[in-house]
């Protein structure tokens, strides 16, 4: 379980870095405490 959480945090860090480097993009979060889905959107 801990390794899954660490991998998810690493993925999130990558998405945040890409989002910050791409003007007009944002991250959408959907879910609850048991699951969360993140999608990067460029506008």
TrEMBL record:
<protein>
    <submittedName>
        <fullName>Uncharacterized protein</fullName>
    </submittedName>
</protein>
């Amino acid at each position: 379980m801990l390794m899954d959480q660490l991998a998810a945090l690493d993925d999130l860090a990558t998405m945040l870095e890409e989002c910050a480097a791409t003007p007009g993009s944002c991250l959408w979060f959907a879910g609850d405490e048991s699951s969360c889905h993140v999608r990067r959107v460029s506008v």
